Amino acid sequence: MSADFARPVARSGLNKRPVFDPALVACPDCDLLQRLPEVPAGSTACCARCQARLWRHKTDSLNRTLALAVAAALLLVIANSVPMLGLSVAGRAASTTVLGGVLAMWDDGRQTVAMLVLFTAVIAPALEIACLLAVSLAVRRPPAPQWAGTLLRGYEVLREWSMIEIMLLGVLVALIKIAELATVIPGLAMFVLGTLVFLLAAMAATFDPRDAWARVAWAAGESLRQAPGLARAAEDKR
Ligand SMILES: [Zn+2]
Predict the structure, then answer these.
(1) Residues with Cβ < 8 Å from 32, sequence gap 6 or more?
(2) DSSP assigned state of 1
(3) Predicted confidence band at 15 (pLDDT cuts at 50, 70, 90)?
(4) Cα(51) to centroid of ligand 1, in Å?
(5) What is the rounded distance in angstroms from the CA atom of residue 193 to the CA atom of residue 167?
(6) Is 166:109 a contact under the CB 8 Å cutoff?
(7) Beta carbons within 10 angstroms of residue 39's beta carbon
(8) Which residues are within 8 A (CB) of 146 and not within 5 positions of it... i.e. 6 or more apart?
(9) Cα angle vertex 27, ends 23, 30, to 5°?
(10) How far is the CA of 54 from the centre of ligand 1 (A)?
(11) How many A from CA of 33 to the centre of ligand 1?
(12) What are the pLDDT digits (tens) for 74-121?
């Protein structure tokens, strides 16, 4: 019965008709549809029914995200080019980088672990930073191209796979265990990676996806002129 009712609506495209009001939001907890008031920078709008946080207007979000992403990109390059760890046993010393460790694990027959470390500690953080760097540059002059929206979706997935802090924790546990057998020399990359963990957290906390989405071109291009959020974003830039 309900399927018969839904079919003609879907065919006529009624369910895809956009509502030109970017202030309309649905509460993530109780699903109440409501209009966001003017929220001053640094303030938070809460749901009228359940008090869940609807949106926090972050101050100068896009510029700060861009600055943090540039800093994070530089730190990631440094972290992967200088030694992370050195060992000294009976007068013999050796040191390795993150990628050197991955190669050593690969040669040792632990290809699965090597691939996981490479992806979660190098590739995913690099893509996460690249995503935000590209988005914060692309949305500076609205309307931002459609690929900015694709990157915004990809960023959420990549964030979950970026696990530098887990790798650092693993390295620290191994260091404590090996400290009785050899002299351990922490390399510059250890400190850089430690800083990068905080920088990535700050970058994620500063970024406001709502602000970025408001500047992305609509799939149906004719809606652009009618979207008030976009018009306001364009005015802010002037
Ligand atoms: Zn609610």
Answers:
(1) 26, 47, 48, 49, 50
(2) -
(3) low
(4) 6
(5) 10
(6) no
(7) 14
(8) 216, 217, 219
(9) 150
(10) 8
(11) 9
(12) 999 999 999 988 888 877 888 889 999 999 999 999 999 999 999 999
Whole-prediction pTM: 0.79
Q: How far is the CA of 53 from the centre of ligand 1 (A)?
A: 8
Q: Mind listing the pLDDT tens digit for each residue in 137-181?
A: 999 888 888 899 999 999 999 999 999 999 999 888 888 888 888
Ligand 1 centroid from CA 172, angstroms: 42
Residues in the chain: 238
- Residue whose token pair is 């988005």: 135
Burial class (CB in 10 A: 0-12, 13-18, 19+), 178: middle
CA of 15 to the centre of ligand 1 (A): 23
